[in-house]
Amino acid sequence: MSPADPAAAAGSVDELAAQEERLVLDTFGNDEAWELGSLLVALARERGAAVTVGIRRGAQQLFHCALPGTSADNDAWIARKSAVVERYGESSYLVGARFRAKGRTFEDSSRLDPDRYAAHGGAFPVRLRGTGVVGVVAVSGLPQADDHALVVEGLERFLSAG
Questions:
Q1: CA-CA-CA-CA torsion for 162, 45, 29, 89, nearest 10 degrees?
Q2: 136 to 4, 37, 101, 113, 157: CA distances (angstroms)
Q3: Which residue from 4, 86, 125, 126 has the fewest beta carbons nearer than 10 Å?
Q4: CATH number, domain 12-161, options 3.90.180.10, 1.20.1250.20, 3.40.50.1820, 3.30.450.150
Q5: Per-residue DSSP letter, 2
């Protein structure tokens, strides 16, 4: 696995899809968004990672934190990656991996405006058991495989603590 191959670093399409099947919440409201967001910020600070964290439920921003070393560009990345989750109902990284697995790129094949959509790792669906996708948790500031991995680790810890 080389850094030039982020799909290999994070796993196959099947592995990425399995993460989404496994990381399902029973409840999700303002308090859960605060807890999950705070957990992600704590993980980032432990690692000295300059990231922005954003969590939305539908159209409402429930959590946002921009750590030192980030900029408004990270907010724009979160918005673009979150738009992919909202459109496809899957993580932004999985959507990009599905295109790559077919030998195509999201940018060339999706026919979506790249100023509004980015199938790069870091945005993950907030999925409720029995309901489906109700929101998005997103991280921006690291290489895409690392953004994705941070969100997955945060969700795993959040679920194991609950």
A1: -100
A2: 27, 11, 24, 20, 17
A3: 4
A4: 3.30.450.150
A5: -
Q: What is the pLDDT of residue 162?
A: 73
- CA nearest to 120, candidates 66, 141, 23: 141
Closest CA to 138 of 47, 65, 49, 30: 65
What percent of the chain has a predicted confidence (pLDDT) above 90?
Answer: 92
* pLDDT of 146 strictly over 70: yes
Return the structure tokens found at 53.
């964290």
Strands 132-140 and 52-57: antiparallel
Q: Return the ∠ at Cα 130 (arms to 12 and 125), rounded to 5°.
A: 40
